[in-house]
Protein 1
Amino acid sequence: MQEQSGIGRAGVHAILIAPPMPHDLLECLSRSSQGEVWRARDRETGRIVAVKKPGGAAQLVSIRHPQVVRVLACHAEEMVMEWIEGNNLEKLGQLDAADFDTLVRQSLSGLAAIHETGFLHLDLKPENIFLREPRRTSAVSAVVSGSPQDTGTQGGLMVGQRVSSHRFREARRLFQKPNLWASLNLWEIFWNLFGRARSSAEFVIADLGNAQALPVETHQLRGSVHFMAPECFEGGRLDERTDLYALGCVFYFALTGRLPVEGELAPQVITAHLQHRVEPLEGAVGEWIDAFDGSKAHRSISQRPRGSG
């Protein structure tokens, strides 16, 4: 049994125990220079779990949030996590307005829980955010299958959908307020102005294999270049705002089904991040994502607020 001590963000000293979990590896799901992910079976309970090799800090078992994957056991060699039944955003592609609304609310809430433990996720990407089953059939299945049936947005907006000019002016006025994110939820404002969609979807932030305790130096980084913040390539320390930039890139993908920055080779993608070359979106949702990029996903980390709310 492994035992580690740590001091959380609130300064409370705790002993965190990560007991070994005997399991049988069943199937290698992915393998890269950053490690391996396996589907495995717990020998004691028979339940299916996910195993990431190598592991991470034992303190990750303390994260308890419905929108964050549950870490069952963790040490340097491997991390054992709950198995999430469902599809990730990479497979789902472009979401409808109802599910996008839910994605924004739930992923920001889950990310805040990770940050409150004193960790950064550092690998937020469509592949690592899952839509947990059972999922809705009215909207999500239509997106996956490409069916033209009604998606049940119930007043929500798709990319490019037009709204009245006075609502655009009101939105821009709100977007320009200083320190808006510190006092208001911009997503709440968006749906109050343009109509609210409803969804019973449940999104979960998965794979904490790259999570690191603050402070984080850039030379320690491993991640996916299309979803890494500019400061990751410039040296220095990272903080919560680095994850927020990555989440902004994920939101762009969820709205459009395409990457926010393009490039055939990693250096080209890095340059696109550094020069903030992102193709703008049209319509009301495009206005919102531009506002998000102008705050939480701003090119400069110093111009991003720290909070996830």
Protein 2
Amino acid sequence: MTNEEILITIQIALLALAPVALFIAWKIGVFRGEKFLQNAPSRQGKIAWEDLFIACACFLFGQLIPGVIVGSIYGFDESTSIPLGPKGLLGSLSFLSVIPLVLFIIIRSPDIFDHGLKTIGLSPSKLHHQLLDGIKAFLITFPIVFGLGAILQFIVKLAGEDPSSTSHALLHQIRETPAAFFITSVFIQAVITAPIIEELFFRGIIQTTLIQNRYIGKRWPAILITSILFTAIHYNSVYDANTGEFAWHTFPVLFVLSIGFGWAYEKTGFLYVPILMHALFNISQICLVLALPDC
């Protein structure tokens, strides 16, 4: 079988599993709205607007740290095409972007939340149960997200476009430069750094703030709004400024994926659950690109 035939087989299998996953989600009550989450763990405390502003600043500032370090070493700016070596180093240093937000949460959580870090689900107690919940939630979300992705890719092909040319920036770079050092740096960035910082920020801070807001105050609206923000912030990842190509078909996938992260977090109350789901999703994407580089 060719790589394309293998990919089509995988997509068909995931499309077949998607209704099963949807049925399981229905059986456990996901589609019951707030009733599904009425017994979910509550997060006691209050995130003030100034704390939210500082958290946003820490999140954004953290994204700049690796680029500033690599840029100062190699002496290039944003208009420069980054060579493979610096690009790999940029990914390897991506873990530094977590530091400002993590420090903020560690310092402020005792004052913001009634039980500190435990309130937002960063407790080591029953960690094996949390990881098992993360795997279960991923196995439900995975076929739905990938099935949707397969349908949208088929639509893109019908429109005469190449889905692989407008995929996530990191995945596109792996196809172009499959060097071991670069792939390792992408792994660090996509499987370790991104899940931690994005789930801390979007689920731990943004979603929690929205639930505590008196005008929103409910879990599902907070999950949906957070998912819109999560999807929007990935705009640069799916837009190629050099070619003008825009992977519009990835936005619904990211949105549904984020909803999966959100409901899993609310249902379990542990932040490790969406972090693990996020990491597993990114691993599956990287493995698929490495196994089928031409698709």
Protein 3
Amino acid sequence: MRKLLFAVVSLMSAFTLGQVTPDDARKMLEEGNARYVSTNFKAKDFRQARSEQVKGQKPYAIILTCSDSRVPPELIFDEGPGQVFVIRVAGNVVDEVVLGSIEYAAEHLNAQLLLVLGHSACGAVKATVEGGEFGKNIGSLVERISPAVEKIKAKNSDKNLIIPLAIEENVEVQSAAALHNSHILEELRAEGKFKILGGIYSIETGEVQIFEPALKLETKSSSKQEHGKKEVEKKETEKKEKSHDKPKPHESKANGASANYDVNKDKKITNTVFTDGEHFCLQVSSWKNRSKAESVANKYRKLYDGVFIMPFIDAVSHKTWYRVRIGYFTTQKEAEDFAASIE
């Protein structure tokens, strides 16, 4: 009797999924999460389901979420195999590979919506907020999360609020990135056949708060970019106005290395000032990635002379770091004064 009932329910589900709309899909996710929170799970016959899934898959929703082991989408929405198309990556970020998977599910599997799901206590967002030295691969994740973090930091000084607000803003950013980098998703959405939603999963309660993201793509003409541009222009103007009394590093060599500074005798004086015993230089940043160090150095070269990169091999890890320096200065005070002037 139970098998017969499940077979009937399965046939009804298959018929229903064929007519699912984006709004239906949202309701199914919300109802599934309510079952998960209440632990009133629906009955599942995995053996029977497997035999049906040999014929193919018809997921009604795509869920892009974090790789965090505490965020299992099928459990959170009380679904069995074949019902939701899940993509997991740290920080639930969107890149070309992720977007290709989303487009496949939307166009070829007829999934009705994309849910970009962030979660409380996200380690990827937390790491981006706190900053530090990142390798190439983790750095690529941080690079995609950074726009959300920078936007929140610019508006909030309360450290207790920055991470949770950045988690939500990151969902906004990734949702917009998915839509505006895919003609397929844009067309399906314009035809009313597809919807993009955001969500935040609470590890503490198990609840998912689903919302409609703004889907606004940050561009160079956005208020954020314009504000940044104005700040740069303001600093450059102030720099020109004060150039007559600001300490300057001496002229650099043609190859960008600081003239006369002996890197073989390099010695640390303070956290930012170094000396070769005769001259002094200022360290502005340190990177594991040479290309990143070059990128930063080039930005400083547009403003100052004497910018150079000094490779440094860590005695413990034996890894090479690339230190971006400005110099040289004839006295320690001159270097410290210069450091204060560019802060």
